[in-house]
Amino acid sequence: MSTAARRRLMRDFKRMQTDPPAGVSASPIADNVMTWNAVIIGPSDTPFEDGTFRLVMHFEEAYPNKPPGVKFISQMFHPNVYGSGELCLDILQNRWSPTYDVAAILTSVQRYVYLFILFLVL
């Protein structure tokens, strides 16, 4: 069955394949377009340089009207990443917009991690 959420996720996947943002990758698991595996590469010139941080993204049928659940699978030291790996990020909660796609979500997470690193350095 093709729902609006599944069609949108396939469009997001096509974009990730044809025009991926730098330092991130993502794809749905083999038998379920509603669950994705993602990787963020640590930014250059930081303690996370060349690190790979794995995440899982869970989408509901209400996507894109409702944000996905995003969780780090890799160990991540960050004040807004809970011990469970769940992420406290405004665009995944009260600042969500249906215009955000998988690429926008992952680049936001990537920036979020990078801003924390800058805070530590300064």
UniProtKB/TrEMBL annotation:
> Which CDD domains does the UniProt record give?
UBCc_UBE2A_2B (cd23790)
Query: Keyword annotations for this protein?
Result: ATP-binding, Nucleotide-binding, Transferase, Ubl conjugation pathway
TM ranges are none
Q: What InterPro entries does the record point to? A: Ub_conjugating_enzyme (IPR050113), UBC (IPR000608), UBQ-conjugating_AS (IPR023313), UBQ-conjugating_enzyme/RWD (IPR016135)
Keyword Transferase in record: yes
User: What are the residue boundaries of the UBC core domain, all occurrences included?
Assistant: 4-122
Q: Would you say which domain of life the source belongs to?
A: Eukaryota
- What is the residue range of the signal peptide feature? none
Under SUPFAM superfamilies, the record lists: UBC-like
Q: Could you tell me which Gene3D superfamilies the record lists for this protein? A: Ubiquitin Conjugating Enzyme
Which GO-annotated molecular functions does the record name? Answer: ATP binding; transferase activity
Q: Which residues does the entry assign to the active site, renumbered to this chain?
A: C88
Q: What family is this?
A: Belongs to the ubiquitin-conjugating enzyme family.
What PANTHER family does the record point to?
Answer: UBIQUITIN-CONJUGATING ENZYME E2 (PTHR24067)
| This protein's name | Ubiquitin-conjugating enzyme E2 2
Q: Which organism is it from?
A: Hortaea werneckii
Q: What is the lineage of its organism?
A: Eukaryota, Fungi, Dikarya, Ascomycota, Pezizomycotina
